[in-house]
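user: can you give me the structure for this one chain? tokens are fine.
assistant: on it. calling the predictor now.
[tool input]
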Amino acid sequence: MFARSICGEGFPDFYAREVVGEHPACISTTIDSLVQPIYDKLGVCFDMNTIGYRLDENGDPLIEDCQKRMFTDYYTTKQSMQAFKSLYTNRLGLQDKFVDYWDVTSAKLTSNPYVVGFDPLNEPFPGEPLQDPKLIIPGVMDKTQLAPMYERVYEKY
């Protein structure tokens, strides 16, 4: 998952919290409120803040509480969808920071004979599958969201 604040790991929480903001949405706050009963039946587009998990000293859900659900459930939270969308659209420069991270990391590992490659993003999720359902068609998200970002990551190599 994207970050500890969404019951996962990867991105620093301060970046995740910044791009998610105070009022994350799956489509928009207005549309989400109108179709919330449908979301609830489907088990998607729920807010991490409404689950009632206990929080640690950083304000993140306790890992033992997070483990009460399948980790894949967290992909469909409002926070996760907003975070992934922000990464792919470079909201608040998040993709720039991601590319910069891989520039530094890959430069350090380039001369290591035991490193043969790297995968910049493990288990990527479409940033806006409810807003653009075509993204769940195999290959569409890869071509429209991942490839442009990966091209930026790999352009120096």
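assistant: here you go. The helical segments are 13-20, 29-42, 63-66, 78-89, 94-109, 140-154. Residues 94-109 form the longest helix (16 residues).
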